[in-house]
Amino acid sequence: MKPLKKVARFAVARVEVLRSVPLLAALGIISTALVALLPRALRAEQDVALAVIVAPTSKLTNISFEDLRRVFRSERVRGVDGARLIALNQPPKTADRVGFDHTVLGMDSDAVGRFWVARKVEHGNGPPRSVTSLSTLRRVVEKLPGAIGYIRPGQLGSQVRAIRIDGKLPEDPRYALRYKP
């Protein structure tokens, strides 16, 4: 049965029950039911979690949110083995890159651009390298010692593994690296 037919039958079947309910309450019940019947991808304002990734051989298992911010601001941060962490960004203007920049750096795309111009002039440090695709990101993180990046948990593979942020993994509701698309 197509989703719209399912919704229509659900609404018609509930009309008799709703006759005794005030109009605003009935509309609230119907809208809640309609949203519940939509596929998850179509529901508005779903949080998207991003997993911070490292190579499977990396000794890094946890990073603080503040250290993550410092790494992606091109500040020197060392992992547990003493190796310098090297930030790798997703391509500019992608939804995950924009969400990551907003959540971790606290800036929109234009502010990020201005930040890096000022940073380069003042300190000489440029932005983290951006990769052209997720497959490239996974390959580089796997092969480059100290590399750290981010992808959606469903995009993890054997090349990389997720690490914790402040002791939490992406499936934890209190995980810090989430954004609204």
CATH class of the largest domain: Alpha Beta
Helix content: 40-55%
Low-confidence stretches: 40-44
Count the E strands.
8
* CATH 2nd-level architecture of the largest domain: 3-Layer(aba) Sandwich
Tally of distinct domains: 2
Major β-sheet annotation: 6 strands, mixed
CATH superfamily of the largest domain: Periplasmic binding protein-like II
- Overall body shape: globular
Would you give the CATH topology of the largest domain? Answer: D-Maltodextrin-Binding Protein, domain 2
Could you spell the SSE succession in H and E letters? HHEEEHEHHEHEEE
Distance between the first and last residues' Cα: 29 Å
How confident is the prediction overall: mean pLDDT? Answer: 83
Strand fraction: 5-15%
State the strand order across the main sheet. Answer: 3-7-2-6-4-5
Essential attributes:
single chain; 181 residues; alpha/beta; D-Maltodextrin-Binding Protein, domain 2; 2 domains; two-stranded antiparallel ribbon; 6 helices; 41% helix; 14% strand; globular
Description:
- This protein has two domains: 40 residues; 132 residues, D-Maltodextrin-Binding Protein, domain 2 (3-Layer(aba) Sandwich), CATH 3.40.190.10.
- It contains six helices and eight strands; from the N terminus they run H-H-E-E-E-H-E-H-H-E-H-E-E-E.
- It has a six-stranded mixed sheet. A two-stranded antiparallel sheet has the order 1-8.
- The longest helix has 16 residues.
- The two termini are 29 Å apart.
- About 3% of the residues have low confidence.
